[in-house]
Amino acid sequence: MRNAFDIPSEPPGADLDRRIAERLKALRFERGWTLDDLARRSGVSRATLSRLENAEVSPTASALGKLCAAYGLPMSRLIRMVEDDFDPLVPRDRQTVWTDPSVGFTRRSVSPPAATLAGEVLDCALGPGARIDYDQPPRPGLEHHLLVVEGRLQVTVAGAAYDLGPGDCLRYQLAGPSRFETPPDDGARYHLFIV
Q1: Which tens digits make up the pLDDT trace of 19-77?
Q2: Tell me: the pLDDT tens digits for 118-151?
Q3: Same domain assignment for residues 30 and 103
Q4: DSSP states of the chain
Q5: 64: domain range?
Q6: pTM of this prediction?
Q7: Same domain flag for 120 and 167
């Protein structure tokens, strides 16, 4: 039986990677940017961008965070752009799961974004000794409510570090870099409500 901190051994679905790659390429074309333009704006190398857009590699949380910041949209909106149309009921077996095995991160879109809804809900797991840095917010002022369900998590927002345990809730608006980090001996499972 798997626990909340087990990361699936298989990589993210090839179909989801392909759809993300297609959407990333479409976003760049819509803006009339070259790969070099996007590399300058995002801080992701031109070679990596090319490999991502051709679905030769699976995107990492860090790379997607940088690209979403360059495009001015939350990562969940990007993921939503490659999912099916809005449905009021989202059964667990239809909730999109995205993983970044390089840092031991799993993200389940429990209540995905939709054009007519203001918020969304994510169920996330970050393995022991993991760290994810986001250089800038996808959209300044994006509101987060983070509830730790299991384990320990340190979240750094606007230069302030917060140590969270089960039941702790951190509410904040993104304005600059942020970091999610777990101690070496404990991972974390948390719900993230985005408004």
Answers
A1: 888 888 888 988 889 999 999 999 999 999 999 999 998 888 889 889 999 998 888 77
A2: 789 999 999 999 999 998 887 788 899 999 999 9
A3: no
A4: ---TTPPPSSPSPHHHHHHHHHHHHHHHHHHT--HHHHHHHH---HHHHHHHHTTSSPPPHHHHHHHHHHHT--HHHHHHHTSPPP-S---GGGS-EEEETTTTEEEEEEE---TT-S-EEEEEEE-TT-EEEESS-SSTT-EEEEEEEEE-EEEEETTEEEEE-TT-EEEEE--S-EEEE--TT--EEEEEEE-
A5: 14-80
A6: 0.62
A7: yes
- Report how far residue 112's alpha carbon sits from residue 103's, in angstroms, rounded to the nearest whole number: 23
For helices 35-42 and 46-53, give the axis angle rounded to 10 degrees: 110
Checking phi first, is residue 16 left (phi over 0); if not, alpha (psi -120 to 50) or beta? alpha
Place of tokens 């989202």: 90
Tokens representing residue 120 in the block: 């969304």
Q: Which of 62, 80, 98 corresponds to the end of one domain?
A: 80
Q: Which tokens go with 39? A: 């590399």
Distance between CA 169 and CA 145 in Å, rounded? 7
Q: Assign residue 30 the CATH number of its domain.
A: 1.10.260.40
